[in-house]
Design brief:
With 507 residues, the chain is an alpha/beta fold. Helix content is 42%, strand content 12%. The strands form 3 sheets. Strands 3-10-9-8-7-4-5-6 form an 8-stranded mixed beta sheet, sandwiched between helices. A 3-stranded antiparallel beta sheet has the order 11-13-12, with helices on one face. A two-stranded antiparallel sheet has the order 1-2. 37% of the residues are buried.
């Protein structure tokens, strides 16, 4: 078997040159050692092996190896062979290497406008776990032993096609289990052939907007709304028009509004981030409007399983037959985010083409993981886990609501919030900047997000905090909330005193 070093040298020596082979081999070897492509301490092939693999005379290799040894690039170990010297910096100090004319013009390259926008929209938090990180489930309570058993079963005797690229939108077994589950739990009308398994909702949004949208198309987005969708739309050249929300969901503009949107992004079952439910009247109006103007509604049903009171809210997708709705869901909230499995339910007219595009664009695989998830659903573990966590999250929510009402006052809770989801929104006085509070809280080990960041129109932005309770055990909520209260008090003292008051009573 040919060595890595031989492969590297063959690529370099393939370039046409009138230079003698001895000089070319010496030059490429020293450059590779200097750049650490051939690492310090790495064993070089024997002169015989390298000569055979490169198709050159052995004497040439012997001469080059001797020169490298003399100059200190390599060292010889009796009985073991020739190794790259561990002391490269001593032999060729940085001042010498910097004299080499590499002409690195790419070092001054700048990100594109699109690239800059993506970076600007990136989440600020370097950590995604801890109190009170919104949108993160309690991954410690996941039945890891059960899922590990199902993974081992899938790996025990995999068929060759399970180890190849995904075809047809993902594993058929998982799509069958999902179609049955969604029909019962979310009133989604679909068959397995309408489902594509994706690596996260971001990939689903990217697939749909790439294939159905064109640069300069327009998308309506909720304001406030999910920043991730706006980022992907911008990356695909699609302009966004922010549409305000009220207690009944998106405030639907009249049909004659211009420009006509290609996409309408909504979170009707639990608006993100404020938490209201879109009314039945608005749902029907939205579908009628989309049919009339040829728009696609993209329904993000990101955490619909976690409703703690009242009747379940069915998905918009199943409200009418053949509705122009593309439904998206994820296992990130119900299982764990690192699984990176989501799904998109397409209208039948789109399914075939988008499956082909999905295979072409992303070359998906991970079919054995999909098999384990299918078994997890089939054996009833998925539903049992959701019911168990629904009860746990409801208790944590009640505790956090009680703390907010007692220590800050009921007016600090957003009035729109529904009794569902994985986070609460705390309203802040307009004189208390939420971005400053988030920075201070992060320095104290508290992870939260500023509500104002979710607004598209700066003038409409409200000050507030998204407090995730799902990933905080009940015995830690009081202690962590006390730290947050200290942060609120400090920001008030720093310049917003008089905007509100934190009580000193113990919880």
């Amino acid at each position: 078997m040919r060595s890595f070093i031989s492969d590297l040298l063959l690529q370099q020596l393939a370039e046409p040159s009138s230079e003698a082979m001895y000089k070319r081999l010496y030059r490429h070897l020293t450059a590779s050692i200097r750049s650490a492509r051939i690492a310090p301490g790495q064993r070089l092939p024997s002169s015989r092996e390298l000569a055979e693999e490169l198709g050159i005379a052995r004497n040439t290799v012997v001469s080059v190896y001797h020169q490298l040894l003399c100059e200190g690039f390599t060292e010889s170990r009796v009985g073991n062979g020739t190794f790259v010297s561990e002391q490269q910096q001593d032999v060729y100090p940085a001042s010498v290497l910097e004299q080499t004319d590499y002409r690195p013009g790419w070092l001054s390259a700048q990100l594109s406008e699109r690239g800059n926008r993506i970076v600007e929209e990136a989440p600020a938090s370097p950590s995604e776990w801890g109190a009170f990180m919104p949108g993160v489930p309690d991954v410690e309570q996941f039945p890891h032993a059960t899922f590990s058993r199902l993974l081992r079963q899938a790996w025990r005797a995999p068929m060759p096609e399970m180890l190849s690229y995904s075809q047809g939108g993902g594993l058929k077994w998982l799509r069958e289990e999902l179609a049955a589950y969604l029909g019962i739990a979310r009133s989604v009308q679909c068959d397995p052939d309408q489902i594509i398994i994706t690596e996260g909702v971001h990939q689903a949004i990217d697939l749909v907007t790439r294939m159905l949208g064109s640069p300069q198309d327009v998308a309506w987005v909720e304001d406030p709304g999910y920043w991730g969708a706006r980022t992907i739309l911008a990356a695909n050249g699609i302009s966004t028009v922010p549409i305000p929300v009220d207690a009944h969901g998106m405030c639907i503009p009249p049909a004659a509004s211009e420009p006509t949107p290609k996409f309408i992004f909504v979170t009707p079952s639990h608006q993100y981030p404020l938490g209201m439910v879109m009314s039945l009247d608005r749902r029907r109006r939205l579908i009628r409007l989309a049919r009339h103007q040829g728009s696609w509604i993209i329904e993000d049903d990101y955490d619909s399983e976690f409703r703690f009171g009242g009747l379940p809210v069915p998905a918009l997708q199943g409200l009418e037959p053949n509705a122009p709705v593309i439904y998206m869901g994820t296992f990130s909230k119900t299982m764990y985010p690192g699984l990176r499995l989501s799904y998109v339910v397409l209208p039948k007219v789109l399914a075939s083409a988008l499956k082909a595009a999905h295979t072409t664009l992303y070359r998906e695989g991970r079919l054995l993981t999909q098999a384990a998830v299918a078994a997890f659903i089939s054996e009833g573990h998925y539903t049992s886990h959701i019911l168990r966590m629904r009860k746990a999250y409801a208790g944590r929510r009640r505790m956090l609501v009680s703390l907010i009402e007692r220590r800050l006052g009921p007016g600090w809770l957003t009035p729109e919030a529904d009794n569902a989801g994985l986070h609460l929104v705390v309203s802040l006085p307009e004189t208390l900047p939420d971005t400053r509070l988030v920075e201070l809280a992060r320095s104290r080990g508290i992870l939260t997000r500023s509500l104002s960041r979710y607004y598209h129109q700066a003038g409409a932005a409200r000050q507030g905090l998204l407090l995730g309770y799902a990933c905080v055990p009940e015995h830690q909520i009081i202690q962590q909330f006390e730290v947050l209260l200290d942060c609120i008090a400090q920001v008030m003292q720093d310049g917003a005193s008089g905007a509100g008051r934190v009580t000193s009573a113990s919880p």
